[in-house]
């Protein structure tokens, strides 16, 4: 560590001690723009034997419990590096040199598990329902699955996952170590949008180191220093993947890609199903080329939003359109004599009982031609409604049409016409 960098850190330590309470907000606003200070603090944390490590950890904890949001985020940006230093020292069996880092991690953990009144926090997360639209999907594009999810959501069967209450910890042991570190990474991921690029780079690098140290892949990555294996838990790896997924789309594609491959490598060796599932899902969703995302401005995960308009064409064939097309076809007249369909075109029956030279029978004198025709029309309509009588009614209609043509031509047959 150079003398100039050491001087920047010492000035920062002394400045905060003499800072009045009224100037705390302005001090926190200007602190994030001091890039030279941030880089110097990273070098202090990476040197466990540095004499400035203990006062730096103490001041970072003072920032965190000050209640100022920007000071809290300033401390959080160093969290991945602090976790790596603690795990590296623990793996090397040199526990005494990590005392101040362990105290800082425990202090942040104990502050986060309680609210302002001192009561234990219970974090809850509702699993999104596929029946409700989001920036990731629309129910209409899923198909029949949306109907099932919609029916379940109407009955209030949405699943809620709870985390907590978490117990207070006075020291980190092999039994509770990753329970605490996993919760700390959860807090870090909750503030990912406020983290600078240097913090995302640190996250990707420490994820790779944790996963490959002590394994043959360490020589491929050319990581020097620690050669002991660092045990990890399944939940801790899932939290690492959450931050890496964000880094992919916020200017750190290459480092995030390397970290993702290393996590998959370690998860396969450990046979952890949860990290493998999440990591492979992230890998499958990535675009083929590297994302050229600006490192300035708003940070977010880029997704493709489906259009809100319906994708079903207005001319799509449905059961309703088929039914309407059938009735429309039945209503069209057919002028062909050979292709006349029964029930489509009703042809009135012509009575031939009152042709000249034919006597009417007893009781039929009072019946007019209109009444007889009306009965025959009704009979033809009744025949048309029953498809089973189609073959029987067709010759009858042709016979009636031939008789009608003979009458129109002026041909008068004597007596009753025989067929």
From TrEMBL:
Domain of life of the organism encoding this protein: Eukaryota
Localisation: Cell membrane; Cytoplasm, Cytosol
GO terms, biological process: phosphatidylinositol phosphate biosynthetic process; protein localization to plasma membrane
Primary location: membrane
Keyword entries, A-Z: Cell membrane, Cytoplasm, Membrane
An example Gene Ontology CC term for this record: plasma membrane
Record bears the keyword Cell membrane: yes
Stored PANTHER family: HYCCIN, HYCCIN RELATED
Record family assignment: Belongs to the Hyccin family.
Official protein name in the record: Family with sequence similarity 126 member A
Gene field: HYCC1
């Amino acid at each position: 560590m150079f003398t100039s960098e050491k001087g920047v850190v010492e000035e920062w330590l002394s400045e905060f001690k003499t800072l009045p309470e009224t100037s705390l907000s302005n001090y926190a606003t200007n602190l994030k723009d001091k890039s030279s200070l941030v880089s110097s603090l990273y070098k202090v944390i990476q040197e466990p034997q540095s004499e400035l490590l203990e006062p730096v950890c103490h001041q970072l904890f003072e920032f965190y419990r000050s209640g100022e949001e920007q000071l809290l985020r300033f401390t959080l940006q160093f969290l991945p590096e602090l976790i790596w230093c603690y795990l590296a020292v623990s793996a090397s069996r040199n526990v005494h040199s990590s005392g101040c880092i362990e105290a800082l991690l425990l202090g942040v953990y104990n502050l986060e598990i309680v609210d302002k009144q001192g009561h234990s926090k219970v974090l809850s997360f509702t699993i999104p329902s596929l029946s409700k639209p989001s920036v990731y999907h629309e129910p209409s594009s899923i198909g029949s699955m949306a109907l099932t999810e919609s029916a379940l959501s109407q009955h209030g069967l949405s699943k809620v996952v709870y985390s907590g209450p978490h117990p207070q910890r006075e020291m980190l042991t092999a039994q509770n170590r990753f329970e605490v570190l996993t919760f700390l990474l959860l807090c870090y991921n909750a503030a990912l949008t406020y983290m600078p690029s240097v913090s995302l780079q640190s996250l990707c690098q420490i994820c790779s180191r944790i996963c490959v140290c002590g394994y043959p892949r360490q020589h491929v990555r050319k990581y020097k220093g620690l050669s002991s294996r660092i045990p990890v838990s399944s939940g801790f790896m899932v939290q690492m993947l959450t931050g890496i997924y964000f880094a992919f789309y916020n200017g750190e594609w290459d480092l995030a890609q390397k970290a993702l491959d290393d996590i998959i490598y370690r998860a396969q060796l450990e046979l952890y199903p949860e990290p493998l599932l999440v990591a492979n899902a992230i890998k499958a969703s990535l675009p083929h080329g590297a994302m050229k995302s600006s490192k300035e401005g708003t940070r977010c995960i880029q997704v493709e939003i489906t259009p809100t308009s319906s994708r079903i064409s207005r001319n799509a064939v449905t059961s309703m359109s088929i039914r309407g097309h059938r009735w429309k076809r039945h209503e069209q007249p057919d002028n062909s004599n050979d292709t006349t369909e029964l029930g489509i075109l009703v042809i009135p029956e012509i009575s031939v009982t009152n042709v000249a030279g034919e006597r009417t029978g007893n009781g039929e004198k009072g019946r007019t031609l209109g009444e007889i025709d009306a009965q025959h029309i009704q009979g033809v309509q009744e025949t048309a409604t029953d498809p089973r009588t189609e073959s029987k009614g067709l010759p009858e209609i042709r016979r009636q049409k031939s008789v009608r043509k003979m009458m129109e031509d002026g041909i008068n047959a004597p007596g009753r016409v025989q067929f």
